[in-house]
Amino acid sequence: MGKFKGIERNLPEHGDREFSRYMRRAFLASSGFDHEDLGRPIIGIADTSSDYNTCHRDMAQIIKALERGVLEAGGLPLVFTTSSWNEILTAPTTMLYRNLLAMETEELIRAQPMDAVILLGGCDKTVPAQLMAAVSADIPALAVVCGPMRTSYWQGQRLGACTDCRRLWAAFRAGEIDQAGIAAVEQRLCASGGTCAVMGTASTMACMCEALGMMLPGGASPPSASAERLRHAVESGRRAVVLARDDLRPSKILSASSFSNAVRVLVALGGSTNAVIHLCAIAGRAGIELALEDFDRIAVQTPLLVDCKPSGKGYMEDFHAAGGMPALLKALSAKLELDAFSVSGCSLAGLLAGAEEPGDWQSVIRSCDAPLGPCGSLRVLEGSLAPDGAVIKAAAASPELFKHRGPAVVFDSPADAAARIDDPALGLGPHHVLVLRNAGPVAAAMPEAASLPIPAYLATQGVKDMVRVSDGRMSGTAYGTIALHCSPEAAVGGPLGLLHDGDIVALDIEGGRLDVELSDSEIACRREQWVAPPLPARGWQRIYCAHVLQAHRGADLDLLLP
Ligand code: FES
Q1: What is the pLDDT of residues 345-360, one digit of tens each?
Q2: pLDDT at 1 over 70
Q3: Which domain holds residue 386?
Q4: Residue ranges around ligand 1 (CB below 6 Å)
Q5: Beta bridge partners of 45
Q6: Is residue 218 part of a domain?
Q7: Which ligand 1 atom sits nearest the alpha carbon of residue 161?
Q8: Cα 403 from chain centre
Q9: CA-to-CA distance for 501 and 409, rounded, in angstroms?
Q10: For the CA of 54, the nearest atom of ligand 1
Q11: What distance in angstroms lies between residue 87's CA and the mean position of ligand 1's atoms?
Q12: Residue 496 CA, ligand 1 centroid: distance in Å
């Protein structure tokens, strides 16, 4: 048995350590804990359940299962609540609060006695925030998620949040579905508790936990409230006690190999572009170099293997039924860094020795010999509109728009776009490039507004996609030919802020370019006239804007880097 500190850890300063111990025992006794309990390793469980986070509504059952596992292995589980941010119920964007949750979770881990922590997250930003916290606090830590939603049906069509939310809303805007139809769809999109039913950000980040080695195998995909989800939680509870006794910290697990594997898995999944920002932030906390060039280098060598929306047709239920992450890792094994370590206590090579190849009875997880799509489902773009890079999900873009030149129509903010995009007086055609600026980290904490809707009068003519460019993000469930995260953003003087209506924007996905066709002298002239926008006056938004890094550095706060 290894060493652990239990209630001795993080004693408050009273100027008398024995008094501090005595007081701590006294207050824990008030919860019924006796000397036997207090001699066990303490396993903190970070609980992100909230009535405001409908995705997490099954967490109470998962917490019971985690606690049972911890107790069975001889630990003492102590649940602590943190803030919880749901994508749909949080304004202006959950991205504003990812770093706040990371900071809050880190401080709660540091301040309270715990020998290991189980991070129970799910909805998009909760998982990266918890990983960032665990890396910085660097105590033994293990990730668990609530799991994805189940799908349902409407008029014979299978439905799942939230790619279908967007697809059917676009059909409603195009006049293909009436008011009664969209009202019926609204009632069926979210069929159960759990995170979005497709390979959106939540499920992508759950898969990233497994790929990084921070989650026990098979934990990313069991549906919320399923028996497998609960059994994985019991196993995770037991494992957390071993991690505590062995002092197996994130700094002993995460390495350049882990991040290389995570990026490769992200590309094979056709996963969320938001994971690029989150992986950069987590790597930044760990002091591991991870640049956009690394994403592109790995992306062009990695085929699309997973047939899940929005890059394919299936849902997380299908991915899970096909074997989930263990099967995908097995399919990718020839391209992975097999020396990467994990919370299971062995290397990826050891884990994959017992994993099954994706069976030929399913078509959701493909092999590298017969992939779903070519290499490069995710690409990094560079050029005069994004000197520090931008990203695009090529797997969710329209092939006919991979190479496109068109005049820009510029929206100065998400509110400006909402007010004007359907105005026929703009005279837009399918060849225009819709530009949304001032949606970057400093200007707006990167709302998921970059997937601007197709103007209604073009949608009714059958236009399904247009090139869009932004310094903001899009939801992991969204699709279209959308260049995201242009860095540096407009609000700090990036070239997007200098663009005028009618400037010609050129996108070349295969060439990795995003440019504006302007002379250097014209750009210099416009830059002289550019004025920085004011920062918010007070509170968290003020702190956030003053310290947030650009997207290509993970949009973490500079004061939270190691
Ligand atoms: Fe919570 Fe999609 S809104 S995971």
Answers
A1: 999 999 999 898 999 9
A2: no
A3: 377-560
A4: 55, 86-88, 123-124, 162, 195-196, 200, 202
A5: 79, 118
A6: yes
A7: 2
A8: 28
A9: 5
A10: 1
A11: 6
A12: 29
Q: Where are the alpha helices (DSSP H) in 90-226?
A: 95-111, 126-137, 163-173, 179-186, 201-212
- The pLDDT assigned to 537 comes to 82
Which numbered atom of ligand 1 lies nearest the CA of 124? 4
CA separation, residue 155 to residues 180, 188, 268, 315, 462 (Å): 13, 11, 32, 18, 22
Tell me, yes or no, whether 337 and 437 share the same domain. no
Residue 282 in any domain: the answer is yes
Q: Are 485 and 550 within 8 A, CB to CB?
A: no
Per-residue 3-state assignment (H helix, E strand, C coil) for 220-231: CCCCCCCHHHHH
Instruction: Using the predicted structure, report yes or no on whether residue 95 has a pLDDT greater than 90.
Output: yes
Which residue, judged by its Cα, is nearest atom 3 of ligand 1? 87
Q: Are residues 213 and 298 in the same domain?
A: yes
CA of 141 to the centre of ligand 1 (A): 23
Helices 201-212 and 256-269 sit at what angle, rounded to 10 degrees? 140
* Domain match, 343 and 382 both: no
Q: Six-digit token pair at 286?
A: 């760990």
- 402: domain CATH number is 3.50.30.80
Q: How far apart are CA 98 and CA 110, in angstroms?
A: 18
Which of 52, 58, 59, 86 maximizes ligand 1 atoms within 8 Å of its Cβ, making it the mutation to test the pocket?
86
Cα 470-299-438 angle, rounded to 5 deg: 10
Q: How far apart are CA 467 and CA 560, in angstroms?
A: 35
Q: Tell me, yes or no, whether 201 and 291 share the same domain.
A: yes
Does residue 422 sit within a domain?
yes
Residue 439 sits in the same domain as residue 505: yes
**Is 369 domain-assigned?**
no
Spacing, Cα 338 to ligand 1 middle (Å): 32
Same domain, 411 and 330: no
Looking at the structure of the chain, the number of domains it has is 2
Q: Of all residues in the chain, what percent carry a pLDDT higher than 90?
A: 95
Co-location of 112 and 256 in the same domain: yes
Query: For the chain, give me the number of helices (H) and strands (E)?
Result: 21, 16
Domain boundary residue, one of 352, 368, 403: 352
pTM assigned to the model:
0.97
CA of 416 relative to ligand 1 center, distance in Å: 26
Q: Could you tell me if 382 and 464 lie in one domain? A: yes
With left for phi above 0 and alpha for psi between -120 and 50, is residue 465 left, alpha or beta?
A: beta
Secondary structure (DSSP) of 332-379: HGGGS-TT-B-TTSSBHHHHHHTPPPPPTT-SSB--TTS-SEEE-SEE
Q: Are 478 and 433 in contact (CB under 8 A)?
A: no
CATH number, residue 238? 3.40.50.2300
Could you tell me which residues come within 8 angstroms of residue 222 by beta carbon, excluding any fewer than 6 positions away? 147, 228, 229, 232, 320, 324
